[in-house]
Amino acid sequence: MPNTRPNTESKALAVNLDPRRYGSFAEIGAGQEVVRWFFRVGGAAGTIAKSMSAYDMSVSDAIYGHCDRYVCRRRMEDMLDHEHALNLERLRESRGDTTAFFSFADTVSARNFKGTNDCHGWMGIRFQAHPRDQDSQIIIHVRMLDTENALQQEALGIVGVNLLYGAFFLNHEPDQLIESLLDDLSTRRIEIDMIEFSGIAFRHVDNRVMSLRLVQLGLSNAAMFSANGEVLQPSETLYKKPILVERGSFRPLTHVNVDMLRAAQEKFQHEADVEADEVVTLAEITMRNLRANGDVDLRDFLQRVDVLAACGMTVMISDYFEYYRLAAYLSRYTKKKIAITMGAGSLCELFDEKYYTKLDGGILESFGRMFKNDLKLYIYPLLDRRTDTLTTVQNLEIAPEIRSLYQYLVDKGCIEQLDNHNPKHLSTFSREVLRQIEAGEPGWTEHVPEEVAEVIQQRGYFGYRRPVPAAKKPRRRVNVLPPLPSNNLVYPPTTNLPAN
């Protein structure tokens, strides 16, 4: 179907012509690119109470309070707090019955003169969906991909207009709102790697699903959220931190997954320049894994992340099937060590050349990209239950033509065997556990953490059905004779009667 949504100019005009909307714009870092659209299309006097740009740091601090970083979420939220409070204080009494107030804010680092900075920004809107309504809010983080400052400013202006229009006219359809954010743009110009909905208008929105939508629609290649469902922005969560990742399907999370991460973390924290309390651990699920059975099943997705949350894990959804692309993504945010832990079976697949036919340099180019930043692979052994033997780094079967490459990476320490694993978990295989859950077979709870078993049983996840209690045997009816009428006579016990 053709895209019937209005263009940027039409959206800005629709906002200006809506008599309910009135508020302020505060923009730092790339000029006033968003509000300019509303001035340009006409009718701005009915929409804009104030437009400002506190570009100087001292001036910005004087208005919004001190902040260590000026292009960050905290600064943007300080701007929203301040401007929205002023709107309500100054205008609520005079026009609050007919006006839905809003405040828009962004703080952006566009391309500098030398072209050496990270081009990104925070953008948000706090608004009333209806007059006198409670506040609602949308926050996004954008990365500008254009190579010219003027083009980045143009793209920011368009994204800002799309955000305002979506907040006002699409707040009841958050999926459509997300999809509309790149109207009149493309993913070659703007990446949106974080979105968070909050407030009364979005009380039924699950931000974990919204994070998935960003990746699913191609607005971002990865999204993150914490165990409590809080949306995380990768550049702030991973900034200058050592990172440890476990990739898996987590259908369900088993003792093997937990033990693999524990064993890898024990090794990783003893690496040079790695502080144990700084390590960020991620459970990563790829879009290819989520689409394994066709389209993404949101129910299945939420079941996976709920069992991960039960064990306190931070989740990353990514569109990086190739490990070298995942490594390149993570290295954007940190110069500290990055490690990935996987089973021996996954390591064998990693050395299968069929996955690298699209690269001019094939597997050599892939590994050159993956290991260039001192990446480390921690390998969990694989048990063959028929022969009771383990597949490890030392005896992994590798094609003869790339055996030398494999041995070079092992000798260099890029690939390391996890010899601190717990042997009792080696017989656990997630597919078998899933089959047991679906079939209602006993014993599967022994292969998953207690917290995971509890969530699955309480919520009926992964096809689990509560056991039907055994039918109770019917009680045998006993005929009870009615009591004899009392005649106030006392009979002696028959056992005391004298013998004849």
3D shape? globular
What is the typical, i.e. mean, pLDDT?
90
CATH architecture of the largest domain: 3-Layer(aba) Sandwich
- What is the percent of helical residues? 25-40%
Number of strands: 16
CATH class of the largest domain: Alpha Beta
Structural class: alpha/beta
For the report, how would you describe the main beta sheet? 8 strands, mixed
Tell me the strand percentage band: 15-25%
The domain count comes to 2
Separation of the first and last Cα atoms: 110 Å
CATH homologous superfamily designation of the largest domain: HUPs
The radius of gyration computed from the alpha-carbon positions, rounded to a whole number of angstroms, is 31 Å
Which residue ranges are poorly predicted, with pLDDT under 50 across at least 5 consecutive positions? 484-500
Give me the number of helical elements: 17
Q: Output the CATH topology of the largest domain.
A: Rossmann fold
Explain what this protein looks like in three dimensions.
The protein has 500 residues and is α/β, with parallel strands linked by helices. It folds into 2 domains: 1-205, CinA-like (Maf protein), CATH 3.90.950.20; 222-467, HUPs (Rossmann fold, 3-Layer(aba) Sandwich). Helices cover 36% and strands 19% of the residues. It has helices at residues 8-16, 33-41, 57-64, 73-95, 149-169, 174-180, 207-216, 234-237, 255-268, 287-290, 298-310, 323-331, 344-350, 362-371, 403-412, 430-439, 450-459, and strands spanning 21-28, 48-52, 100-109, 120-128, 135-144, 190-199, 222-225, 231-232, 243-247, 280-286, 314-318, 338-343, 376-380, 382-384, 389-391, 415-417. It has an 8-stranded mixed beta sheet with strand order 8-7-11-10-9-12-13-16, sandwiched between helices. A 6-stranded mixed beta sheet has the order 2-1-3-4-5-6, sandwiched between helices. Strand 9, helix 9 and strand 10 (280-286) form a beta-alpha-beta unit. Helix 11 (298-310) packs antiparallel against helix 17 (450-459) and helix 12 (323-331) runs parallel beside helix 14. The model is unreliable at 484-500 (pLDDT under 50).
